[in-house]
Amino acid sequence: MTAGSGYRQARWEEPPIWDLARRPVAEPAPAIPGVPERWRRQEALRWPELSEPVVVRHYTRLSQMNFGIDSGTYPLGSCTMKYNPKLSEVVARRAGAAQVHPYQPEATVQGSLEITWRLERALAKITGLPEVSLQPAAGAHGEYAALLMVRAYFRDRGELGRRTEVLLPDTAHGTNPASASMAGFAPREISSKDGCVHLSELKGALSDRTACFMLTNPNTAGLFESEIVEIAEAVHAAGAMLYYDGANLNAILGVTNPGRMGFDVAHLNLHKTFATPHGGGGPGAGVLASGETLAPYLPVPRVVKTGRRFRLDYDRPKSIGKLKTAYGNFGLDVRAYAFLLAHGEEGLRRISRRAVLNANYLGARLGRRLPRPFRPLVKHECVLSGTPLRERGVRTLDLAKRLLDEGVHAPTVYFPTIVEESLMLELPETESKRELDEFAAAVERALDDTPENLRAAPISCAVGRIDEVRAARAPILSWKDLRGAAAKVETP
Amino acid sequence: MVRWISEEAGEEAALLQALGIASADELFRDVPKRARVGRMGVGAAREEPEVVAEIDRLLDRNRPLGRFANFLGGRVASRYQPAAVDAIVSRSEFYTSYTPYQPEASQGMLRALFEFQSLWVELTGLDVANASLYDGATAAGEALLFCRRLHEGTKFLVPASLPWEEKSVLANYASGPGLSVVEIPYDPRTGLLDLAFVRAAVAGHDVFGVAADVPNGFGGLDEHLFELKATIGDVPLAVLADPLALTVLEPPGRYGADVVVGEGQGFGIPPSFGGPLLGLFACRKEHVRQLPGRVVGATVDAYGRPAYALTLQTREQHIRRSKATSNICTNESLMALAFVVYASVVGPKGLAALQSSLAEKARTLATALGGTDGLRAPRFEAPYLGEFTIELARGSAAAFLDRLRRRRILGGHPLGDPRPGAPAAPERILVAPASNVGDKEIARYAAAAKAWAAARGGAA
Questions:
Q1: Is residue B354 domain-shared with residue B216, that is, in the same domain?
Q2: Whole-angstrom Cα distance, residue B361 to residue B282?
């Protein structure tokens, strides 16, 4: 029991919401005049009737058993868990932002259209790619859209029958190969060299069958792909498109950009670089940025400015069409725009300088205790390996759980998969030196703790170590399943 | 400059000193000169009050829904959001957290998502639900791919009455694997599915799934749904359902749906100019390994206490990569939280009462519009709940709606595909009274429609 921070998460023995009220009496739903009886729900919705204070206390207690950025350091690599500015929350809740329907006439939504248009223009400058759409709902949705655009482009050129492959490095985020598959391509992984793209291997893999090469730069090992210009030349020489996964853009603002590096199309995550809150899993907001070649294929509608008016333009004959209902996640766009206005040119540059400084500092300090599989100069994140823990009969997973007892979140673990027992750490620009030092000290305390304590961790969270194997072996996924399990016990 | 970037006195110098470098610029020496950029040109930083003032100035150019008599609905609903929903969603332990990769530290969100999944299971009459998708349209796209994993074939049948936006999203989801979306014609009088067409199409042995929506794209309730599963046999049935409608209607699981998807925004989520929305997805237990997206399961901790975690992750992109059931990573967890809080605050009786009240408003409006020259309301002879379609015999939907807007009425959503080159279609408008519409607003709508008719009298 050596938790150094004195951290204790709330531990409510809060019952599930359906146990907070007596089971409702089974009765039919009310009849609706004009609707035939056969439509009528015979058993009204099985959900508790509760007073508002009971509901609010229930979810407040649940919230107290949840760790957010406002609770403490959240060093998830590749997730860019930076502070979510409160002013963004305020502006997104204004009636002019929240209480606006997407299908209102254009004349009544000029503000939403202008914010969208301005954010798109700013992101075009930041990415160096001239055309931007905010329609994707999240990063993976943007990847998918980009690949559909690549698909449409090669179809128009009559090359789709041949260009069936999408290449990606073995360090790629899992969404990359998944998006490529969904878009109808055969993903093919290229093995890395020292954590970076192996240029000669890439050249060997590129052919007239290649539709696209997907890359994030800096990559998931935290390394900048210094041969990016050569990579772009090789991809284009093969007639293929180069796609930028913008998950790690936070490291390069104002230093380089996807357009300058030679990428044809990119997605960004507003919930990473532009600090929109991730909501415990979502919502996100994806940005789709495109160079001239693929721009005609962007989804409709596009927001255009005619004179002083803004309107939705559907006249894009080559467009892939729609990706989701209505337009993008405007509620996130307005938050990101506030973030952008507050930072301006200099602020954006400072973000990357500080984020990279933090990652290098943390890497250097923790590199004294755990092996660093790649070169020490990193960008937004650093990767360590927990292999030395094996000698003591523990694993990276145990270290991660032990960190939870320190009042911090754990880093991303077991990714990138090319590193054994990997830990991927990212503490962006909003984290102070004090927090970096405290986090590093927490890791050091955890490393010095006994194997027994590491395996017993966490002891300070709402629950102890969770049996995830059991969850997957006999899945219980709803109240209905719980009722079924209870019925089995009652009637042997 | 607002103080979000850490800038405690001297700390940057200390960090540089620890690394033995003079400037952070040295940390970018691996970025080649050929890839460097100069100024981005995004303007200077502003202080917090200026940022708020600037955004407010822009938002003032919007006219929010409160300024209108509002009849906009369809997939994005205009309903009151109880204050308690935002109070919970605004708790930063929830909204500033990431996907619960460390379940021990994230029980709150996991439990809320488990409750959310349970609610969608109860509403649909199916067995398992996932922890959300982006929105109703992408959930329909995932349903298409899900059906293909269950059944051979290249064709997915969808009602021709489906909104064009959804057809376009579905066409995108179908395009990757080389599948096609085929439209089921509707009866011109009722707007209901042509079952004979479905029967004939399925007999061709190339249909891998059939979709239908409740209510349909015209707002109607299609009684053919009760016979649809018997018509298509072992071909999977996907139902796109409105969650509020399901509080009063038979759950689709009772009439053979294999997957039920929907748009959850109407449950406590503001319209926000179209997003974030909430995609709902449920299926039968035997198909759980084909489920797309995250799912929360109940288990126990090391002490045998109830605990929750993301589970069945071998279906997902971060484990299965190119063989995953979907590429989705970030979903709409916070919106799922809003959904379950909304349903719990309003309660089953309150939800059914809301649906009844919206249905009554729609009926009152249809009655009030009856006899308006040049306008049929409702256009289709089918039962409906809170929305129906009107059709103009002359003039354009855009001109009609513009006329209403001038009288501060948002008269509905035109159903036509606005893309140039789209096939010509009748001038139809989906009308859905918002939850705050009363008799006065309905009377204003009817008066405006009659004024439109009078102004156009004989001008066909």
A1: no
A2: 30
Over residues A9-33, mean pLDDT: 90
Task: Tell me whether B126 touches chain A (CB under 8 Å).
Answer: no
Which residue would you say has higher pLDDT here, B320 or A282? A282
Bridging pattern class, strands B155-159 and B180-184: parallel
Q: Say if residue A4's pLDDT is above 90.
A: no
A contacts of B228 (beta carbons < 8 Å): none
Can you tell me the mean pLDDT for A142-170?
97
pTM confidence score = 0.97
To the nearest whole percent, how much of chain B has pLDDT over 90?
94
Which of A128, A431, A480 is nearest residue B121 as measured by Cβ atoms?
A480
| Contact status of B33 with chain A (Cβ, < 8 Å) | no
**Are B244 and B372 within one domain?**
no
The answer to whether residues A112 and A94 belong to one domain is: yes
Same domain, A213 and A286: yes
In the prediction, which pLDDT does B323 show? 87
DSSP designation for B62 = B
| Percentage helix, strand, coil for chain A under 3-state DSSP, each rounded to 5 | 40, 15, 45
A47 and B119 in contact (C-beta within 8 Å)? yes
b/e per residue B16-48 (b: at least 16 CB within 10 A) = bebbeeeebeebbeebbeebebeebebeebbeb
Q: What is the rounded CA–CA span in Å between residue A167 and residue B322?
A: 12
Q: Which of the pair, A229 or A474, is modelled with greater confidence?
A: A229
Window 375-404 of A: residues touching B by CB (8 A cutoff) are 377, 379, 400-401, 404
How many structural domains are present in chain B? 2
Residue percentage of chain A with pLDDT more than 90: 95
ipTM: 0.97
Is B152 part of any domain? yes
Chain A residues with CB-CB distance to B72 below 8 A:
101, 103-104
Q: Tell me, yes or no, if B361 comes closer than 8 A to chain A by beta carbon.
A: no
Q: Is residue B167 part of a domain?
A: yes
Q: Provide the CATH number for the domain around residue B418.
A: 3.90.1150.10
Amino acid at A485: A
Does A197 reside within a domain?
Answer: yes
Q: Which chain A residues contact residue B55 at CB under 8 A? A: 91, 94, 115, 334, 337-338, 341
- Least confidently predicted of A249-263, A470-484, B231-245: A470-484
Confidence (pLDDT) at A2? 44
B3 touches chain A (CB under 8 A): no
Residue ranges of A 124-143 with Cβ closer than 8 A to chain B: 125-126, 128, 137-141, 143
**Virtual CA dihedral for A201, A227, A267, B48, nearest 10 degrees?**
150
DSSP per position, A58-92: HHHHHHTT---TTTS---BTTT------HHHHHHH
Any idea what DSSP says for residue A274? T
Do residue B327 and residue B213 come from a single domain? yes
* Residue in A63, A337, A477 nearest the CB of B93: A63
Pairing mode, if any, of strands B207-214 and B155-159? Answer: parallel
**Domain ranges, residue A91:** 87-342
Query: How deeply is A308 buried, as exposed, middle or buried, from its count of CB atoms within 10 A (0-12, 13-18, 19+)?
Result: exposed
β-strand pairing of A309-313 with A302-306: antiparallel
**CA A1 → CA A4, A390, A449, A464, distances in Å?**
9, 21, 9, 14
Total tally of structural domains belonging to chain A: 2
E strand segments, A195-264: 196-197, 210-215, 241-246
Residue A24 binned pLDDT confidence (cut-offs 50, 70, 90): low
